[in-house]
Fold this sequence. Notes:
Blueprint: H1 5-8, H2 10-31, H3 38-41, H4 45-71, H5 78-108, H6 115-168, H7 173-187, H8 191-210, E1 217-218, H9 219-236, E2 241-246, E3 256-257, H10 261-272, E4 281-287, E5 291-297, H11 306-322, E6 328-332, E7 335-341
Amino acid sequence: MDRKIFYNSMAFRLSAPVLVGVVIYLLVLMFFDSVESLADNFFSREVMFVIGLTFLFFELNRLAIVMLNYFYPESVSIKGRLVAQYLLSFLVTIAAISSALWAYFTIVEGFTTIRTELITFNGLYIFTAIFYHLYYFSIILLSRQNESRIQKENALRQSIEGEYISFKNQINPGFLFETLEIIISELQGNKKKADDLIDNLAKTYRYILDHKQDELVPLKSELESLDPVEKIFQAKYPGQFSIELKMNDANLNGVNLVPGTLKMLTEMALTDNIISPALSLSLRISKDDRRLIVEYPDNRKLRMDDPLLERLETFKKTYAIYSEEGLTAGSENGYRIFKVPLIEIEEE
């Protein structure tokens, strides 16, 4: 909503003078110790005059803001604008209130001197003007803070998105070299199996290329992308590596992940863990209402792969854009556990 809309709002322009006018009238009665006459005078012409005077006050102060927005916008200097706006408001208020009071009390009521009335009414309206313009400037300052915060968040988002796009367009050399080693080893004994591994490698990178411009992909697509990866590494670790899905197809609709999330977590499990006949690696993937849970036995090597840690941090930053919880990693009861937020896209 436009931060200047309140003084241009017809509802505000019509309702504020009535409410403020009644309050000012009550304050005037209290000042002159005439509160007991309130019941007799509440619908008198005095009340109507004060409400009309208040309407004039609001319209003139609104006009002052409109003029200053044109001739001296706050974008030039907020301090200078504050001083200019208050000075103009005080001058306009005193001139208008004094003129209206003189006309009413001398012409309509027949007073010969209105010094006390002038001081009282001008004091009340100056006090009202202070809060009126204080509200205006508080909206400006809050708006500037929000705009600054939004600009910083947009800059951070663009930085993370740029980093992630660059990251997505890179081929992980570690995964590629390890896959080629597996294929070469199979070529010596089983060419048919080697052909199948080449086909699985092609499927893996075809998936990466197909989704390199996508911010999100359906969970089902991410799970299907693990099938060729599983087959490649089952060739290297026969009977020692498996991926177990603990969910059904009915739970996969309407939720999304950042492309490559599951492949990255699978690579972490394969690269950072000791895998042997005695220490097999079973990657279990399950789902609750809000998150995908990836867990596997924590048999990490003494030194973790630094590039993989960098990749994990990139994914964490990316998920922080879409979810307050973000992607979390931890260990519990001998298992390495990753919790990935499931992202729902609201249709407009």
